[in-house]
C-alpha cells in the first residue's frame, strides 16, 4: 500500500460519475472542487467506456479531489494488477476490485503500491444477498489480513454495514474506510450507512442528474452529516 491514503477516513460523500457525457463529468468535477463538504469522485464503467482511461486523466486535470476507478476488477492476478496499474497511471488514487476473486488477486493489486485498493464485500442489489452474503464474513476478514485500504458495504442494508464493519481487523478503530452505495436511487436515505459505521456514502444519479449538481451534493452531504449531529 502507499504510505498515505488520499481518501480520508471521515464522513463524506463519494459522487458516482456514471454519466455517459464526458463534458458534464468534467464540469461536475470542477464544481465539486469548490463544494462545501468532504467529497471524492468514483468513475464508473459507463463513463470510462466513452473514451477509455483518458477520461480518468481528464477528470484528474479538472479537480484535486480523490478519484476512485470503479472497474470492479475481477480477473486473474496478472490481468487484475495490469488493469489497476493503468488506472493509477491515468490519475486514479484508488481502484475498486471484487474480493471474491481470491487472496492472490488482492495481494497482487495491493503489492503494486500505487494507490488505495478497495474491495467489494457486498453489493446493493438482491442478488448480492443470494450469493455474496454467504461469504461476507470470510471475505472481510481475508481483506483485512491482506491490508486493503477500503471496503464496499451496501447502504441499502445498513444492518449489514453495522454487523460487518466491526470485523475489520477485529478492531473498531481500524484504519480501513468503508464506502456504501445505494443512496437515493436505490432507496437508502442520506446518513443511513454513515450512522451504522460507513465513512462515505456513494451517490450518483441524485447528484449528476439534478438541475444543480453542486448544490445537490452539498445538500446530501449536510443531510448525512446531520444524522451524526455534526450540523
Describe this structure as you would to a colleague.
This protein has 231 residues and is α/β, with parallel strands linked by helices. It has one domain (12-226): TIM Barrel. Helices cover 40% and strands 18% of the residues. An eight-stranded parallel beta barrel has the order 1-2-3-4-5-6-7-8, surrounded by six helices. Helix 5 (103-110) links the parallel strand 4 (94-98) and strand 5 (116-120). Helix 1 (22-33) runs parallel beside helix 3 and helix 4 packs parallel to helix 5 (103-110). The longest helix has 14 residues, at 77-90. It is globular, with a radius of gyration of 16 Å. The relative contact order is 0.16. The model has no long low-confidence stretch (mean pLDDT 91).
Short account of what is shown:
The protein has ten helices and eight strands.
User: Approximately what portion of the residues adopt beta-strand conformation?
Assistant: 15-25%
- Mean pLDDT equals 91
Strand order of the largest sheet: 1-2-3-4-5-6-7-8
CATH class reads: Alpha Beta
* Fraction in helix: 25-40%
The major sheet is characterized as: 8 strands, parallel, barrel
Number of helices: 10
Helix/strand class:
alpha/beta
CATH-defined architecture: Alpha-Beta Barrel
Low-pLDDT parts are none
- Give the oligomeric state: single chain
Shape: globular
Amino acid at each position: 500500500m502507499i504510505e498515505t491514503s488520499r481518501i480520508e477516513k471521515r464522513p463524506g460523500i463519494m459522487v458516482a460519475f456514471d454519466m455517459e457525457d464526458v463534458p458534464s463529468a468534467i464540469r461536475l468535477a470542477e464544481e465539486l472542487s469548490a463544494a462545501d463538504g468532504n467529497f471524492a469522485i468514483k468513475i464508473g464503467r459507463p463513463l470510462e467506456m466513452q473514451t477509455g482511461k483518458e477520461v480518468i486523466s481528464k477528470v484528474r486535470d479538472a479537480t484535486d479531489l480523490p478519484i476512485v476507478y470503479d472497474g470492479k476488477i475481477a480477473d486473474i492476478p496478472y490481468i487484475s494488477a495490469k488493469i489497476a496499474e493503468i488506472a493509477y497511471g491515468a490519475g486514479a488514487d484508488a481502484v475498486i476490485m471484487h474480493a471474491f476473486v481470491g487472496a492472490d488477486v488482492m495481494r497482487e493489486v495491493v503489492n503494486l503500491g500505487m494507490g488505495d485498493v478497495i474491495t467489494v464485500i457486498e453489493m446493493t442489489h438482491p442478488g448480492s444477498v443470494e450469493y455474496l452474503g454467504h461469504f461476507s464474513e470470510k471475505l472481510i476478514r481475508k481483506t483485512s489480513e491482506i491490508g486493503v485500504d477500503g471496503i464496499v458495504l451496501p447502504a441499502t442494508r445498513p444492518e449489514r454495514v453495522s454487523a460487518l464493519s466491526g470485523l475489520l481487523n477485529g478492531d473498531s478503530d481500524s484504519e480501513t474506510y468503508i464506502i456504501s452505495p445505494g443512496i437515493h436511487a436505490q432507496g437508502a436515505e442520506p446518513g443511513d450507512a454513515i450512522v451504522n459505521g460507513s465513512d462515505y456514502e456513494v451517490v450518483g444519479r441524485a447528484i449528476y442528474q439534478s438541475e444543480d449538481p453542486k448544490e445537490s451534493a452539498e445538500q446530501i452531504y449536510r443531510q448525512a452529516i446531520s444524522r451524526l449531529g455534526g450540523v
